[in-house]
Write the structure tokens for this entry.
Amino acid sequence: MLPENLSAALDQALARFSPQELSDSVARLTERYRVAGVSTGGNHLRSRADIAAYAAYRMPATYAAAATAMRQAATLTPGFEPRSHLDAGGGTGAAIWAAAGVWPDIQHVTVVEHDPHIIDLGRRLARGGPPALRGATWRQASVGAGLDRPAADLVTMSYALGELPAADRPGVVGWLAAQAAMVIVIEPGTPAGYATVAAAREILAAQGRTIVAPCPHDGGCPIVPGRDWCHFSVRLPRTALHRRIKAGTLSFEDEKFSYVAAATGPWPRPAARVLRHPVKRKGVVSLRLCADGDGLREVIVSKRQGELYRRARDTDWGDPWPPAG
């Protein structure tokens, strides 16, 4: 769920447009997405109504995915307290809001975004945020390997790397990691999004960085391309306006995403991570795991195993295994 101050600022920004205008914009954006096949708005945002609609349509889900990935990374890097944050291709600022919630000691924030109208909305939304967001630097530029940038403890790129030409992505990943203590890349939880994340992961691991999440190891990904893909899911509520502009009836939606978090230095990691919803039957829980050294494997936990079984019943998709304690 969005922070209350961000939700209020977004509602205020949307109030200048009628629900029908926003709904029509979302319909156009959805069709442009279907034709072009890009993951976010990009050059498909052609008016201020489009930008507002896109923020309403995608910002809650982008925030939820970013916050989930960041919380996992923060849990596995105790003592990492970034003071500066660079968000590349930052759109209206979902990732900087998420980072401010996970790491409240961030003091300096820079967002690189190519569209001036998106920047304008991002700035207006940030006015209701914590001091670091109110004082954020919004830079109008296209992300590229040759772009000058400030050093930052935390560098993020969410739902944007996959929009770049494939040939440009390796250089951009190297650019993201330059002088950064932690890099987090997030993409849609689709086979294409996972492939983009997996390629970024290879580059970051080759630099000697520790893959702190979601992987329990730095070795090659054991998933065979074309057969499966690594992704996770977070459930978020929909407001009445959100349901209307999305033409949805459910009070919630599930955002599926792929991500990688890589950091300098050694960090502790779980022995394995749950890759799918656990299958829970009477007296048995089946877990599909990615494990260090073993690759992909299935683990069956039965009721006879007592406390471990009770822990397995409470385990969810994306959780570490075995559970702490």
User: Anything to note?
Assistant: The chain has a mean pLDDT of 90. Residues 272 and 321 are 5 Å apart (CA to CA). Residues 4-263 form a domain with the Rossmann fold fold (CATH 3.40.50.150). Residues 48-76 form the longest helix (29 residues).
